Amino acid sequence: MKTDVFITGGGIGGLTLALKLVRAGIDVVMVEKLPGKQPVYKGELLQPKSMQIFDGLLVYDEVTSNAQIIEILDLIELSKTLHVKDQSFMDYTVIPGKYNAAYMIHHEVLKNIIRKRAEIYPNFHYINSASCKGIEHDKALVQKGKDQFEVEATFFIGAEGRASVTRQAMGIKVEPIKYNHHFITVTFPRPSNFVGGQIFSSYNRFLGLFPLPDNQVRSVYLIPAGEYKRIKEKPIDHFHKLYTDLAPAIDGYVQKLEDWSKIQLMIPIMYHADTYVKGNKAIIGDAAHAVHPMAGEGMNMAIQDADILGELLVDMYKLSALNVENLKQYENVRKVRADYLIHLSHLSALAYSFPFQPVSWIRSKTFERMEEDPVLHFKQMLNVSGLGMWKESVRDRFIQGGMMPTRKKDLPIEKKEMKLFSSEDDYPWKWKGLL
Ligand SMILES: Cc1cc2nc3c(=O)[nH]c(=O)nc-3n(C[C@H](O)[C@H](O)[C@H](O)COP(=O)(O)OP(=O)(O)OC[C@H]3O[C@@H](n4cnc5c(N)ncnc54)[C@H](O)[C@@H]3O)c2cc1C
């Protein structure tokens, strides 16, 4: 079998890349080791940049009609006795333009939308229950059932998540950093009026609730690393109480979970590959980086990688500029952005990692000041959204730390717009004639 681009892994990153390529007439073979749906929970929060990308791929309407919009994320800090002590929020609508909201969508529904759209094109060859075993001499070895076959390709893209065979074939090692906490995660029914995201925290507890469509809610609850087995030994009522203590609004709903069967353990890790490209191979998404889930970025980073690499490959084919050196343009754009989001997610994780009262106090004051200062708030939302990158200044740090007063004046809309990534920022090779 021969193709232009061979993609290992039909997760969200691989599928987004495939759709981008097949629309431009590029031949794609994708192998996915699973026969059907993923058996585990995965990312479900779509940040604004991902929505912009999906708009470009003509799936925006289908995605939004299958998703729950989230404009505001409430951050609720509880006292030791679990009464509301402080409340602040993150507001996506401070971002100018069409893409000023996040969306919650079932992971498999999203994958299905993108895969179905790609399958319209005869140059997309999706092979499920097929595992890539390795890549050597411009050939990928694929195992499907008892059969093995080779696929010859011009480019090989690793989109196979954390355990990446492509990364291995490229000789790239990553060193995962672990955290002192894990999460339990599960989806269950919610009240129909529970439509905003909510994060509840006290000095030693954390619960995130993110509404999905169909009156469901995805939850993540922080537990100390290694405690899962012990917690799971308790009756299910214990789990219900962990949740209802913090979020009384879900009392009567979380109890719909009658046993532990759907409740999963989620272990956060962080790593970042030194390079994303070697010869005619490149890695995207979790194959290239893993990010703490606190800021809801993992899936979005995979989509954003796919967009930049996809646009680059399309241009390389259009211009017959298939020199593998050109693939570096992808890494040049994406690595620095990923680095910053990994750093931000890591900081958010640390803010909830230490079960001490002073940490809880500092956290709530920091969030309060961020909400009060329109410049800080905009920076935070811009960075999280993926639509731009505006690092915090020394002054910002002083304001957050309470050593300087918060600014009262919002930024003019033109200034905010200037901070959004332009097409030149996203695809610099087009403008600088680099191919
Ligand atoms: C429990 C959990 C919750 C998460 N929550 C969030 C969230 O709320 N928001 C967010 O943004 N991110 C979240 N993430 C992270 C997010 O799901 C990932 O970052 C994202 O799915 C990465 O996409 P990907 O396409 O790179 O890899 P994956 O989604 O891991 O897809 C890789 C695919 O490759 C296949 N594969 C692997 N090896 C091979 C092989 N050798 N041959 C063929 N196929 C192969 C796998 O079966 C899989 O389908 C969460 C992750 C987990 C585990």
UniProtKB/TrEMBL annotation:
Highest rank taxon of the organism: Bacteria
Extent of the signal sequence: none
DNA repair recorded as keyword: no
Domain FAD-binding: 2-341
Sorted UniProt keywords: Oxidoreductase
Name of the featured protein: FAD-dependent oxidoreductase
Organism encoding this protein: Paenisporosarcina macmurdoensis
